[in-house]
Amino acid sequence: MKLGELIKTRRKELGLTQQDLAKDICAQALISRVEKGDIVPKKSILNKLEIRLELEENQLLKAEQDNNKKNELDDVQKTIREYLTSRDYKTIELLLDHHKELINNARDVNDKVFFSMVEASLKYHLYSEPDAALDILNDMYLGDVNKSLAVEIYNTRGIIYYSKEMHQEAMAMYKKGIDLIDESIDYEIRSKIILNYALTLEQQDHNKEALSYVSEGIDMLVKNNSLYSLGDYYHTKGHIFFKLGNLDNSRECFELSSSIFKIQNNNKLLSFSQLALTEIENRLSSN
Fold first, then answer.
1. What is the pTM of this model?
2. Superfamily of domain 3-63
């Protein structure tokens, strides 16, 4: 609990007003600002507040120190997420080592699970140890983890199972994650797992079901005015239509994916879409 929240909660438990708490210690306005989280008073004032609030010695100071550590942890997580997006796992490993003590002392279950997920990702991507990565991921209890992070864990498990050609296990993981999805979860997290589930369904020749999930993902991205993974979605949709023999719709999807990949300067995926377009044109011209 943050310093201001702790003071406010304890003050109300004791039936004190802000004026009661501040009497002979500080101004009532200071208590108001502390409870809002705007400022942290000096230690001499914290000590007097502790006595009036009937708290243990240094309990308020410890709450503030814990909050500072949590803020530092949040900053580390934010930085690591940026490097996860760029797949710079070497830098992530250096960050984990640099902040080892801070991470090892994390108390919040979501922090612990996040850094364990990152460790598993390094095992998989950096050291090519999928089984070791799965051991870490499958040992996690997700009952107390926030939904967004739980979805990410299921998605990561699914990716590794898919790479091991354990497609049924991958589908089960993706489905568990998708079942947790609601509007509170960031659309980028949703789009990742929906696309991966659709790819696995398509690989198992559940093409119409895969197409349904792809369309759901596209609608979500369009609703959020985002190009994030939109090219991948249209490329996948084009591939499914191609398998189903619907060449006209397939061509339209590959044209859209090509346009998006051009905008994103994603030359690798652009070449895949263009190759697909060439094959479609050849088939259409031969009919």
1. 0.79
2. lambda repressor-like DNA-binding domains (1.10.260.40)
